[in-house]
Please model this.
Amino acid sequence: MQGYKRQHKSKNNYSNFSGYDRKPREQHNTPKPQGLQVFVRDGEDINKALRKLKKKIERAGILKEIRDRQYYQKPSEKRRIAKKAGVMRWKKRQRELEMNR
Model:
């Protein structure tokens, strides 16, 4: 079995520390994009870009979240609404199955 050598540390842990030896952190000058982006090509219709943006907003669920946060809902009320929506989905599926038979 080989022996284990411990390195002796001085009482002052910072005796060998020099802040100037470290490399400075790299600063990223380009800010990260926040939110949704729609890239418009040269000559592309602005209405088409607006439609793309509306689709992205709808898929991300931003408007639904804004409506939900307009007023406070108690957790019990959220559960009640979610349960009611689940029952409605189940009933709709049952109706669709009945029609397909």
Observations:
- Residues 8 and 15 are 13 Å apart (CA to CA).
- The two ends are 78 Å apart (CA to CA).
